[in-house]
Specification:
Helix content: 25-40%
Bound molecules: iron/sulfur cluster
Distance between the termini: 29 Å
Number of strands: 16
Largest sheet: 6 strands, antiparallel, barrel
Length: 393
């Protein structure tokens, strides 16, 4: 365990230079602790959030390593937003934000950050150094290159279908230990693994650090969740195969109720698990959604001259929002224009539709989830101030 060196006062002043220019490096220990280190590494690499960096040459250690300037040593580091999900896992030359960087800093809990990030010591003069850097990473990974080779083979086999998928990991959210046990046994009996939490609020943290194949929410949790709690898991429900589950008390049989269905609609528990097994495990970056109602004019086609739809947001994040709408003709990826009538700067905001909740389906609030494409600086600052004011305690 590495003691936390975090110093928010220094890093807030700096604005996260390290995370914007040189994402950390992970050591082999995280994977060696797993029963199958290559599979654990393959799951990380397969999430799209990691790339394989290369070190040319074996760093010399007197009496321990032979200098070999030609040897290539590979090791994993977080991807940048430009590298995220790119095939090949090779680093790109351009600098960009680390995929784990959120608006207010790294969203990984300290102990889940890569080793270099945990060892980096913030410096008041912003000359921050880590006692564990590229040289130490190359030495640490030197004798574990075989794990990297095996992980790459597993990934290739998975993509080409040469081997059955490894056990899919499914996040189960239920307050009842008895019901978790029912779900766990059912999952394990058909070859899936279960990661359970009793609190919806824990789900985004788990999903941000552990690649998952699916998410299952127990109905009593859904029924009792506040709209803010529901907003917390909205991105996970969209990014992963997802279901709401219930247990029949008389027979302990599992009933399935489909959630948003963006990754498929499942009639049986087995269908859901099969879809998870065929879905590439991934981590889900939280969007920090907050329940916030902003009155808005929604232009479906700004050039058409058609009057805008009068609507309202149900939740907002720095990157986008969910707008109520029953309009039947909006499509995913459509470009729309939003005018938030309460903002000081009324410049039309360009946005792209990322997902839809159609009226009449699943008894859910109809509307569109959108990502802001163009906000003015004044709008960004005003939105962030509104969101900050609603942050819990
Ligand atoms: S560790 Fe250093 S470079 Fe990184 S955010 Fe903090 S002060 Fe900036
Ligand atoms: S993992 Fe976190 S601390 Fe490390 S570079 Fe990425 S955002 Fe920064």
């Amino acid at each position: 365990m590495i003691n936390s060196n975090e110093d928010h006062s220094i890093c807030a002043r700096c604005g996260g230079h390290c995370c914007r220019t040189r994402p950390g490096i992970e050591g082999p220990e995280r994977f060696l602790g797993s029963p199958d280190p290559a599979a654990a590494l393959a799951q990380f690499l397969g999430s799209g959030n990691w790339v394989l960096e290369q070190h040319l040459g074996v760093p010399y250690q007197p009496g321990e390593t032979a200098p070999d300037p030609e040897r290539i040593i590979r090791y994993p580091r977080p991807a940048t937003v430009l590298e995220h999900g790119k095939p090949g896992l090779a680093p790109l030359p351009d600098t960009a934000d680390c995929v784990f960087l959120a608006a207010d800093g790294c969203y990984l809990p300290f102990n889940d950050r890569p080793r270099l990030c945990r060892e980096l010591v913030p410096d008041i003069c912003l000359e921050c150094e880590s006692p564990w850097g590229r040289r130490e990473a190359a030495l640490a990974w030197l004798n574990y290159q075989e794990i990297i080779e095996q992980a790459l083979k597993q990934l290739t086999n998975k993509r080409t279908g040469n081997h059955p998928m490894s056990s899919p990991l499914i996040l189960v959210i239920s307050r009842s230990e008895t019901r978790v046990q029912v779900y766990r046994e059912a999952l394990e009996s058909i070859g899936a693994s279960c990661l359970a939490t009793s609190d919806l609020k824990n789900a985004p943290v788990l999903a941000a650090s552990t690649p998952m194949n699916g998410i299952a929410i127990d109905m009593p949790v859904r029924i009792k969740a506040s709209s803010n709690d529901k907003a917390l898991v909205e991105d996970m429900l969209l990014a992963l195969p997802s279901v709401y589950l219930n247990v029949s008390p008389a027979t302990d049989t599992i009933k399935i109720l489909t959630a948003t269905g963006t990754k498929g609609t499942f009639r049986t528990f087995e269908q859901f698990v099969a879809a998870c097994a065929n879905f590439q495990a991934r981590v889900v970056r939280p969007k920090n959604r907050v329940e916030l109602n902003l009155n808005a004019l929604l232009y479906h086609d700004a050039a058409s001259g058609v009057a805008p739809e009068q609507t309202v947001t149900l939740n907002v994040s720095p990157e986008g929002c969910f707008l109520f709408s029953t309009h039947p003709d909006i499509e995913v990826n459509q470009q729309i224009v939003i005018d938030f009538v309460g903002l000081t700067d009324r410049t039309p905001i360009m946005a792209s539709v990322r997902w839809l909740q159609t009226w009449g389906k699943d008894n859910l609030i109809p509307g569109i989830g959108v990502m802001f494409v163009r906000l003015s600086k004044a709008q960004r600052i005003e939105l962030q101030a509104l969101l900050k004011a609603l942050e819990p305690g």
